[in-house]
Amino acid sequence: MKIAIVGTGYVGLVSGACFAEVGIDVTCVDIDFRKIDNLKNGIIPIYEPGLDDLVSRNVKEGRLHFTTDLTSCLDDVEVVFSAVGTPPDEDGSADLRYVKEVARTFGRNINKYTILVTKSTVPVGTAAKIKNIINEELNARGVDVPYEVASNPEFLKEGAAIKDFMSPDRVVIGIESDRARKVMERLYRPFLLNNFRVIFMDIASAEMTKYAANSMLATRISFMNDIANLCELVGADVNMVRKGIGTDARIGNKFLYAGCGYGGSCFPKDVKALISTGRENGYRMRIIEAVEEVNDAQKSIVLRKLKNTLGTLKDKQIAIWGLAFKPETDDMREAPSLVVIEGLLKEGAEVTVYDPVSMDECRRRLGDSVKYARDMYEAVIDTDAIALMTEWKQFRVPSWSIIKRVMRGNTVIDGRNIYDPAELAEEGFEYHCIGK
Ligand SMILES: NC(=O)c1ccc[n+]([C@@H]2O[C@H](COP(=O)([O-])OP(=O)(O)OC[C@H]3O[C@@H](n4cnc5c(N)ncnc54)[C@H](O)[C@@H]3O)[C@@H](O)[C@H]2O)c1
Ligand SMILES: O=c1ccn([C@@H]2O[C@H](COP(=O)(O)OP(=O)(O)O[C@H]3O[C@H](CO)[C@@H](O)[C@H](O)[C@H]3O)[C@@H](O)[C@H]2O)c(=O)[nH]1
User: Fold this and answer.
1) What are the tens digits of pLDDT across the range 60-108?
2) Once rounded to an integer, what is the mean pLDDT over residues 35-63?
3) Looking at 231, 266, 362, 433, which residue is catalytic?
4) 155: Cβ contacts below 8 Å, ≥ 6 apart
5) Same domain, 124 and 33
6) What is the pLDDT of residue 28?
7) Domain region containing 369
8) Which residue, 50, 272, 310, 421, could crosslink 92 as a Cys pair with Cβ 3.0–4.6 Å?
């Protein structure tokens, strides 16, 4: 079976490599010449554990190809996945420019029955827009080529993308015919051999499922951050509350971690887009609006705690441990670290940063406005405070006695609740976390 995947970002490249791994012939397409050139030379554009090996193995075995030209493979493939970006527009709605471009190229060039499957996160009603564009193009060509559209939202998490794709909790597929259903079933069968978890539904429901899933997860986080902030005021400990409620099977123990707010390329934008879909349909999504409001405030909680502890931030030296929006990725999109660094610089503090993999990404975004340390220990030399923003494993058990000796001050703000307050107090630190 041959497929094409348009958009070779986190989703497109991971999906492409995983489909190739189970024996499917995959052509990954991107308009970014440099990205495709690099991939052809074995250079992976993103940090994702295991992806290097997976890509190089499948390229070597001849099942994974890269091109900038979708038309070059269109006659050979049964399915085209669209995995291009859907960034937020100025009003918060999803910008469908790239999705529409793919539909146009598809309509201009297909010559036989092909299914265009949208893997990007797109609002309800997008499939109908895609069909209009394809029909326009087919009419302009004066041909009547059979085709179908389908929706197959992706649920992988960065940092665990390959595992999530290879053994998903479920695969959601919106289709309009039995013919498309059979093709999609065949495509996903290798991943689901033991436990068949493909959920077929209509396209609108599949499109909505993706936003509902991300918004539900974001709601849990904002809810716990709200509880954490109240815990601080009343003398409770959010970690104990998390354990207390997470053991209730109806609640479950995942995605209940309070901290310095959610970031990334998905939750912030998808929450905004769902609010916007509500607005466009004359409905106010009140819960999701509150989720966003809580998160926006939570992203500067570490900054507020630094200010409360240090008094003024002017001329203070602050070390930032962790830049990525979560561990195991170099992605800094909407990362809470960016909000804190921006606030610190605005208040006149000097900032030294360290992250195991996001240093280049940080240089690209912040240039020389911050100092870059070679490791977590160099970052803290002569600093007044440490702010932990990403819970990378290597930050979990630092040698506090060494750190205490080289720091100027003794403040540690733990934005991810990974340290033991008693241990830090014993070492002579002024320690603050979230929700305790
Ligand atoms: N990143 C994630 O963890 C994740 C998970 C699930 C779903 N999603 C969704 O998947 C979609 C893609 O996300 P991503 O993080 O992979 O994006 P990304 O920005 O990493 O990659 C998108 C790629 O599409 C390419 N592109 C844009 N227009 C194109 C065109 N006309 N033809 C060919 N290539 C084109 C870009 O050059 C880029 O390489 C988004 O809708 C996102 O919301 C992302
Ligand atoms: O209990 C928690 C869990 C997560 N987070 C934060 O939430 C953000 C998102 O984390 P995560 O969901 O692990 O990463 P993503 O890669 O953004 O994945 C989400 O977004 C993807 C894109 O839509 C979906 O495919 C995934 O299912 C969904 O989990 C990060 O900043 C985390 O630090 C918390 O603050 N507390």
Assistant:
1) 999 999 999 999 999 999 999 999 999 988 888 999 999 999 999 999 9
2) 96
3) 266
4) 164, 168, 169, 170, 172, 210, 213
5) yes
6) 98
7) 299-432
8) 272
Q: What pTM was computed for the model?
A: 0.96
Q: Residues 171, 243: one domain?
A: no
Confidence of residue 271 (pLDDT cuts 50, 70, 90): very high
DSSP one-letter string for 129-196 = HHHHHHHHHHHHHT----EEEEE------TTSHHHHHHS-S-EEEE-SSHHHHHHHHHHHGGGSSSS-
**Is there a single domain that holds both residue 409 and residue 326?**
yes
Whether 266 is catalytic is yes
Closest residue by CA, ligand 2 atom 8: 262
For the CA of 35, the nearest atom of ligand 1 = 39
Give me ligand 1 centre to Cα 44, in Å.
15
**Strands across the sheet containing 64-67:** 64-67, 25-29, 2-6, 79-82, 114-118, 147-151, 171-174, 198-201
Same domain, 131 and 275: no
Pocket of ligand 2 (CB under 6 A): 121, 154-158, 214, 217, 221, 255-257, 259, 262-264, 266-267, 325-326
**Residue 156 CA: which ligand 2 atom is closest?**
25
The verdict on 188 and 258 lying in the same domain is: no
pLDDT in tens, 349-408: 999 999 999 999 999 999 999 999 999 999 999 999 999 999 999 999 999 999 999 999
Q: Which atom of ligand 1 is nearest to the CA of 161?
A: 3
Ligand 1 midpoint to CA 32 (Å): 12
